Amino acid sequence: MNRRLFIGSLGITSCALGMGSRAPSSPKYIFLMIGDGMGVAQREIAERYVRMKYPKRAGGLVMNQLPVHGVMTTHEITGGITDSAASGTALSCGIKTVNGAVCMGEDLKTACRPVAFDAQDVGMKVGIVTSVPVDHATPACFYAQVPKRGMYYEIDEQITPTGFDYFAGETLLGRKKAKGKASPTELIEQGGYQLVQDRAGFDALKPGDSKVVVEHDLGYAIDGKQEISLADLTQKGIELLDGDQGFFMMVEGGKIDWSGHANDLPTNIHETLAFDEAVAVAKEFCERHPDDSLLIVTADHETGGLMIEQDPAGLVTTIDAQEFRGQKYMNEVSNWKKSGSVTAEVAYNRLVNDFGLTDLSTEEAAHIQASVSQTISADAEDARAPEIQKMYGKKNAAVMSCQHALAGKAGAQWTSYKHTLVPVSVTAAGRYADRFAGDCDNTDIGKRLKELIQS
Ligand SMILES: [Zn+2]
After folding, report:
1. C-alpha 126 to ligand 1 mean position (Å)
2. Closest residue by Cα to residue 448 from 437, 436, 430
3. Does 235 share its domain with 378?
4. Are residues 185 and 274 in the same domain?
5. Same domain, 422 and 388
6. Which residues form the domain of 98?
7. How many domains does the chain have?
8. 414 alpha carbon to ligand 1 midpoint, in Å?
9. CA of 38 to the centre of ligand 1 (A)
10. What is the pTM of this model?
11. How far is residue 361 from each of residues 265, 364, 403, measured CA to CA in Å?
12. How far, in Å, from the CA of 244 to the mean position of ligand 1?
């Protein structure tokens, strides 16, 4: 694959047009905000949680209050369920491709051009912001071209040649693949960028600073106060990028997807809320620049097949009972299993207590008891009952059965551990927001953004 040549040609194109200027008719400030795995149901249950938890607050999620609404299909090139790479490519380049491809066509050779470069061509500054590593599929689709999303190191090599002003996310995944090559730190420094990895360095960033890579683990919103949040990264992006020629900023809430795969509803809701706080920061900025800004909030696909079946009065109590992400409990269960120090009965009592499942039906209790006892006591996976194996695969059935019971108590149900084909919402505000109203496909977002920027 001729990656270097392609990047070289991108560089030439950028240089040739880079001193161009934005047409007065195009928006000066563009936010494209992507909740990874954030389907309609994820938005809706987070909305209900907020309305019930804060009854005096006007409205629910900020993203749901934007004036323009649309519905977007997300399938990959053959019509099947997409991954974040194929959908990210559609949102960024406006083309359909195969799963796993980051800004590459279905032949895995023909690269497409991320919209962020179109923005750079007309002089806009560019920011790539995420709550997961910036070399993960969704953010990578806004600056890199590789045939396989797992080529993290090759994605990292493409960060500084972009000349973009601000990258912010978690520890780069390419760090693990840098053996015998320049480390991502060296790549960043050799590329003339400033690498910021702690809060003090982050706080010290000020308007005028450019060519910055922030690499800091955000953790999960549910686990307690984050040292740096997605909203903080977004706010800092505004401070660094604001200027005469405006900016394009992509902001991704990446762990909505991860908690959807984990069927962990409270974590999912908290990640959606953390993403919404970033949307609030962008919206507040847009309101100060009403004639010049465009804010789009959407998703790359739905994850987990979340259904809302009823409207429980106790939604907030149910969700708040779980104080940490489900993985913490899974780690505990593995430790109990390894040490052999906790009986299945004690494990069951601890788990149902920690998940607030004190009013289970006899059937639910029996199911969780069986899941816990088989997880704790099984020497091998195949020692588990076929029903438990079928339902949970290799997942930790003890914790997963509690998470599913909690979701049920919250009036919801996870129907998949994977992505689904269910269309997602698009909401938008600001200049040309009406172009994102109604039904669309994910490729339309990339196409329309390119049209607006190039107009
Ligand atoms: Zn996913």
Report:
1. 25
2. 436
3. no
4. yes
5. no
6. 3-305+418-454
7. 2
8. 14
9. 10
10. 0.94
11. 20, 5, 15
12. 37
User: How far, in Å, from the CA of 99 to the mean position of ligand 1?
Assistant: 11
DSSP 214-281: EE-----GGGS--SS-HHHHHHHHHHHH-STT-EEEEEEETHHHHHHHTT-HHHHHHHHHHHHHHHHH
Angle of CA points 209, 236, 325, to nearest 5°: 135
Cα of 86 to ligand 1 centre, how many Å?
12
Q: How far is the CA of 251 from the centre of ligand 1 (A)?
A: 17
Closest CA to 257 of 417, 427, 133: 417
Secondary structure of residue 127 in the 3-state scheme:
strand
Ligand 1 centre from 257 Cα, in Å? 5
Going from the Cα of 205 to the center of ligand 1, the distance in angstroms, rounded, reads 32
* 417 CA → ligand 1 middle, Å: 9
Q: Are residues 278 and 366 in the same domain?
A: no
State whether 217 and 341 are in the same domain.
no
Reading the chain (455 residues) residue by residue, the pLDDT tens digits are 333 334 433 433 343 344 578 888 889 999 999 999 999 999 999 999 999 999 888 889 999 999 999 999 999 999 999 999 999 999 999 999 999 999 999 999 999 999 999 999 999 999 999 999 999 999 999 999 999 999 999 999 999 999 999 999 999 999 998 888 999 999 999 999 999 999 999 999 999 999 999 999 999 999 987 899 999 999 999 999 999 999 999 999 999 999 999 999 999 999 999 999 999 999 999 999 999 999 999 999 999 999 999 888 899 999 999 999 999 999 999 999 888 889 999 999 999 999 999 899 999 999 999 999 988 876 655 567 777 777 777 789 999 999 999 999 999 999 999 999 999 999 999 999 999 999 999 999 999 999 999 87
Q: Are residues 367 and 432 in the same domain?
A: no
82 Cα to the center of ligand 1, angstroms: 9
Cα 400 to ligand 1 centre (Å): 18
Give residue 137 CA to ligand 1 midpoint distance, Å: 10
State in Å: Cα 20 to ligand 1 middle.
Answer: 37
- Ligand 1: distance of its center to the CA of 363 in Å? 31
- What's the CA gap between 140 and 130, in Å, rounded? 10
268 C-alpha to center of ligand 1: Å? Answer: 13
- Residue 88 Cα to ligand 1 midpoint, Å, equals 12
CA distance 158 to 101: 15
